[in-house]
Structures are given as structure tokens and as C-alpha cells.
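ok here's Methyltransferase:
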Amino acid sequence: MTMQYALDNARATASPMLDCLSEILDEETTGLLGGLPLVPTGRYWVPAAGNGSVARWLARTLGPTAEVVASDIDPRHIPPVDGLRIVQRDDVADGPLPGGWDGIPLRLFAAHTSARRDLVHQHAGVLRPGGVLVDQEWGLWSGFVQHSPYADAHDVYQHYQEALRAVFDARGNDATWSVKAAETFEAAGLVDVRTTVSARSWPGGSPGCRLVTVVAAELRDQLIAHGADPVLLDRLPEIMHDPETVVIGNATWTTVGFAPA
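and the structure:
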């Protein structure tokens, strides 16, 4: 089984989209990882790495004594850096890279494949004793327009989010995965499992708002095919780039679990 992700790294919109995702999520992801007992001589693998920002952070933080691998079905957006090995592979169809790993951070990955439960079990199975599996996903709550000078801003944004959900659902995404991940972690034998949920506001023109316009541009045809009104899609850039618009972004669900020591 391969990952049926709706977005495409080969598109011109891929690089700005991945950069927005990094700007939105990296502070939380690296803050979490930095609070874990990282092993300076350990092995860390970042599947579906996107632009490799998390893997690059691990390589910089741990230095040359660690092994850090970033893999992606299309790794063209991962720049080479010292201490990072880049691998092109289908991280769903090809199964996990051979263990053992001291840490495997998954981000916006598991929810996009129908094999998500098997994915967790497989990745848990290649952790070293005490190794950590992290899963970060956006869940059911996709945020809202907190305030805007445009009277229709809330309705336009919600209209886009509903069409986007329909596009992702058609590709096998499970928007409820974020609330199921912890149970799956425990079923896979991981311990000390915990989940945190966070969201923040984004002013117009910031990464959280730019992401909306980039994704809407890339998926325009698919969004329209799933019920989006092209007139409302055309309203998004003006609303999302206005500095007086403020959006409460998607809720990020982060689940962490450890292989028994």
C-alpha cells in the first residue's frame, strides 16, 4: 500500500507549502524533542520528512556522533547538511527502515494513510529499548477566523476547510486519527503514552495564513470537484494576507510513547 497524499512535492507550490508547515510546527516539534533524553550517539529516523527541517534540527543538535536519516517518497526539498542521510523511499509501502532507532518523529503522516495502525505497530517494533515514537497530527478541529475586516471571512474560511476535508477524506485521510493515536500506541506496546493538544493565532500574511492560500492554489481543481465554490476560493488570498485578519490555526495533537526499557 502506498501513501495517497493529496499534495505533490513535484508541484511549484510544494516548497512554499513545506516552508509554511515548518514555520508553523517546528518550534513545537523541536521543543518537544529537545525536552526528551536524546542520545548523542543514537539513531534517529524522520519518515515522510517533507523539507527535512526536523531531521536537520536533529543532525545539528546531536552532531556527528549520531545517525540521522530523513526519508521521503520525493526528497527533492531536503537540502543536504552534515550528519544527515537522505533516503528516497515510500515510507508506507516499503515498511520501516531496519532498527533499532532511538527516536522516530512522525508529523502529518499517519493520518494520511489507511495503514496508520499498522504503521504505528511497525515503527514501535523497530525502536530500541527506551526509544521514543512521536506522532503529530492536525485533528478534527481546523480552527476559525477570530476576527477580520471582511464580513464574510469566517464563512469563506470554513467553506475552504470543509472542501479540504472532503479532498483528504477521499484520499484515505482519517481526521479522527489524532484522538485514536494514543490507544494505538498502547496497543503497540509503547509505555508512558501521553497526548498534548495546542493551537495558536496567526495574523494575516503569517505562515499559518499563507499555508491556506498555498494549499488552496495547489488543490484548486480537487477542492472544486469536492464542492468548493471557485468564487469563494478566489476570496481567500485577500482575506488571508490582510494583516487585520487573525485566524486560530489547526489544533496540533502530539502523542508520545516509549519502547519499554
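+1. Helices lie at 14-34, 53-62, 116-125, 153-170, 177-187, 207-218, 220-225, 230-241.
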